[in-house]
Amino acid sequence: MPLSETLARVDADLAACRIPVARQRLRGLVSSFPHDLTLRRRLAEVYRLYGDAAEAGRWMYLEEDRNADETAAFEARYRSPGWRMKALAWRGPETTAATSFAEKQRLAVRTAWAEELGHPVDWDDPASYREGVEKKYDEPWTVGGVLAGVGCLVGALGFIAIWVNGVVALFD
């Protein structure tokens, strides 16, 4: 389906309050046309309808007139530069960016990720994202993480105890 026809359907979906459908169409368009900042801007507008500042910030990250709170929410959700690279869903070199601001933003994210890893990375190299996942899970345990794990274990044991008690009561 041509871009203009899909955008007309997005407009019709939004007019009919079919926001999830419009969002899905725009996500598909951004996937097909990752260099089109206009599509990213429209997707950010849809996420604002959801009240999702982090996703709005994600899709406006390459725009100079972006909202600082949305940008901060995006950076908080995607803490490492590697996760941001993956979230931005861009392909190709920085020079393919439509604006100099977008080019600088992408270069800054890629450079930060390369410095963190200690070797060059590429926007088209999914291996660098896997390194980010592995790095994320190599972090030390935290008190909150341990308490959450213990809480899950206690809850599971409590459920098993109630279930066993119920089975025993059933046969008594």
TrEMBL record:
Lineage top rank: taxon: Bacteria
Keywords associated with the record: Membrane, Transmembrane, Transmembrane helix
Name the record gives this protein: Transmembrane protein
Keyword Transmembrane helix: yes
Keyword Membrane on entry: yes
Upper lineage: Bacteria, Bacillati, Actinomycetota, Actinomycetes, Kitasatosporales
Annotated source species: Streptomyces paradoxus
Residues annotated as transmembrane: 145-171
